[in-house]
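1st attempt posting a full record on here, be nice pls
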Amino acid sequence: MSTTRPLGRYGLYLSAVVVGLFCLRVLGEPWSTHFPPMFPDALNPGRSDTYYAVSRLTPFRPSFYFAPRPVLYPAFIWLFGRSSQLIVLAQTLLYCGAVGVVCATAWSLLRTRLIAGLAVAGIVLTAIEVRFALWTTQILSESVGISLGLLAIAAWWRVSAEPTKRRVTWAWVWTIVWLLERDSHTLPVLLVVVPLAGALGLWARRSSEEVRRQLIAGALIAVVACGYVYVAQSHSGRNRYPIEDNIGLRVLPNPSLRQWFVAGGMPVNSALEGRTGKSAFDDDRLFETDPDLTHFRTWMHGPGSRRLWRPLLSDNQAAYDGYGVVHRLPKRYPLEIGGPDTPNGLLGWLLVAAGTLAAAAALSRRRGPVIFAAGGLLAVLVDVYFSFVGDALEVSRHVVGPLDRLNVMLIIAVAIGADLLWQARRSNPDDEHAADATEQQLSLRIADGG
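the predicted structure (as tokens):
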């Protein structure tokens, strides 16, 4: 017996209308500009590491797979013939589709209609917030990364509600595609998703054997994919830029951080002093070419890169809004109902999510959604943290995807906890045992291939 509830014909019609209105609102006014690339990471005639430069290698050349960008977004640009207008349209439709999938998943899996409706409303409010929606107009990897992350979240949510081999396979597919889109995506996968999936594959005895095998197989493939991303970006030399950015923009201007790095062996001389306030790309990449920085580069490639991870908070992305999206979509909401945008708001959302999930774990027999929500929150918090500390250059851009996923996962976690608590309150012990029996029968049928 399926635990999902379909959206229905009228829901699909309404979704199509909403998508059309969103596209008109975001893309209509600047459509005649053809959305030319506005930032040097996308297109810069003097650089070989831009998205357009890598896309010109084409996926048919081996060098494409070891170029200074993870392969997914350059391949996306190549697929649309490097036409910025087509790329922006495709990004916008993918974004709408991903949001629609998450909303449809919430509507079908949350059993309490009011809670499901509020969850869908919260997800939509987050999606149309300008700091997230504006990225669909830029030739940068953020928009596609946000969309693929939402699809992976929806896929794992469906696995948690009703694990089947097919659902687990699709969850891993979206996760691996997502991690191939940006190199920073490998960390939450390696540190949270893989260990959690592996543990469930080994010890979740209530799941069928083929589901558990698929969880473990996917985890192994994900580890290989993460290894490939690391090796490819190391081969291209791109991994050194975040270290140089952090040294120039964060460490050297900050006395306490500087002292801490000097204690870790960072060699300081007049040449390095001159890089204070400079990024890896300033002054014709002097970090890489100055002979007086040879000892620093040796340290940076060894103990320096290991000492870099030290704790160090987000803005409205206005610097990236080249097409005036801020004038056509909402900026923020009262009471932070679309997700947190202040430290106190984040603390409040986290406390509510943790409280509802803990209560649901204690009172409800449906543990799968609780594990998904808790694991998903942990993964996005890891994502936010490492995206913030990982590179001092363009921090607000680097954290926008993680912050979008954080907002969505907080809404989902609160909704799951509230839904399970409401269902536990309404049901009696006999209903709970009956639900258990149904889940066990389903697992047996899956194991038997029925």
